[in-house]
Design goal:
The complex is a heterodimer of chains A (230) and B (122). Chain A has 230 residues and is an alpha/beta fold. Helices cover 42% and strands 21% of the residues of chain A. In chain A, strands 4-3-5-2-6-7-8 form a seven-stranded parallel beta sheet, with helices on both faces. In chain A, helix 3 links the parallel strand 3 and strand 4. The longest helix of chain A is centred in the C-terminal third of the chain and has 26 residues. Chain B has one domain: 2-Layer Sandwich (hypothetical protein PF0899 fold), CATH 3.30.2320. Chain B contains three helices and six strands. Chain B has a three-stranded mixed beta sheet with strand order 2-1-6, covered by helices on one side. Chain B is elongated and about 55 Å long. The termini of chain B are far apart. The C terminus of chain B is likely disordered. The chains are: A alpha/beta (230), B alpha+beta (122). At the A-B interface, strand 1 and helix 6 of A face helix 1 and strand 6 of B.
Chain lengths: 230, 122
């Protein structure tokens, strides 16, 4: 018996394409945000609030990730922005390879901002970098305040955690300060906001956070272009 | 349940390595971080299913689980992560990063001795 070295990262095939995607998005001046949560936390409802707001300000495109069907796409088709459905088949998450061809379509459409709704799942999407600029994670109050410590990877990936369904807070035993503290234990410095996609409360804050991130990317890209010119 | 796609990557990585150094694989050593987000049981099961009927069918996976540690960028100390609190226990800084515990990689293969060699020694 003898041993030979391999040293191969098992997520490297995905990470390599994610790096390509990130470079592609930067080269085309597109800001992309990946929205993740458990099923039924309100990702599509959040998009229903955000699409009309961002469509007035930017050329917008949306990617809908679902295992099967296009029910979410149908909900969003009426807004007059291109919605690209990706069906993952058996897979419980989007990966960099799946979104790669769609990014080319989105660039051809001239999009400046891309909203990606990942497959509803708190486990697997956290493992797969798509090449996005930011991750927004939704945690609804009906899911329970213990989620940050149960799904730490997801909370560490997120730049913004939006605690959704705030209108139901008094119907649950959800410990709001406890949930915020747990999210900050797992990911110190993460932005945490509260929202209700039913009443619209807090949506402005999510929009403001995204505007800040979009502006930051644009400033960084301008800086790079200025730096690159002689 | 993304272990199936990871098992496929694993099989591909091993097959690629065998191209330059062919042999009969008896064991595959895999490093899995505590916070890699992968279940070793599920990965083992997926590997058994997906390697059936291939030259890797008789290979076993040997896991080395890597504990979760963080390094503080403020005071430089590396420590374990208690109760998933990513705040430095020494200085209280929130400026920490994961040091180990995110690994997910094939490290080494164990190869059986060539059958020809075994015959020659008889």
């Amino acid at each position: 018996m003898h041993q030979i070295d391999v040293k191969a990262g098992l997520l490297e095939p995905n990470d390599a394409i994610a790096r390509e995607n990130r470079e592609f998005l930067a080269a085309h001046g597109i800001y992309a945000v990946d929205i993740m949560s458990a099923p039924g936390s309100g990702k599509t409802s959040l998009l229903e609030w955000m699409i009309p707001i961002f469509a007035e300000r930017y050329r917008l495109a949306v990617v809908e990730g679902d295992i099967v069907g296009n029910a979410d796409k149908e909900r969003l088709d009426g807004f007059g922005v291109p919605v690209h459905q990706i069906n993952t088949g058996a897979a419980c998450h989007l990966d960099a390879h799946m979104v790669h061809p769609t990014l080319h379509h989105v660039a051809e459409e001239g999009a400046e901002v891309l909203l990606i709704e990942n497959v509803g799942n708190l486990v697997c999407p956290a493992e797969f970098d798509l090449g996005e600029d930011d991750v927004i994670m939704l945690l609804s109050v009906t899911e329970g305040h213990d989620k940050p410590k149960k799904y730490p990877l997801m909370f560490r990936r997120a730049g913004l955690v939006a605690i959704n369904k705030l209108d139901l807070l008094d119907r649950t035993n959800f410990d709001l300060p406890g949930a915020i503290a747990a999210a900050r234990d797992v990911h110190p410095g993460v932005a945490v906001l509260t929202t209700s996609c039913r009443t619209g409360e807090g949506i402005d804050d999510v929009v403001a956070w995204l505007e800040w991130r979009i502006a930051a990317k644009r400033a960084a890209m301008q800086h790079l272009q200025v730096g690159a010119s002689p | 349940m993304h272990e199936a796609s990871i098992a496929l990557n694993l099989i591909e990585a091993v097959e690629q390595r065998l191209e330059s150094q062919p042999g009969h694989v008896t064991a595959i050593h895999v490093r899995v971080g505590e916070l890699a987000g992968v279940s070793t049981e599920a990965l083992d099961f997926a590997f058994q299913c997906l390697s059936a009927g291939t030259p890797l069918a008789s290979a076993r996976l040997v896991f080395e689980v890597i504990p979760l540690t963080m390094t503080c960028d403020a005071c430089g100390r590396t420590s374990g992560v208690e109760d998933l609190v990513f705040r430095c226990p020494a200085c209280g800084s929130e400026n920490t990063r994961i040091s180990t515990g995110r690994e997910l990689e094939v490290r080494t293969l164990e190869l059986a001795e060539e059958p020809e060699v075994a015959h020659a020694s008889n």
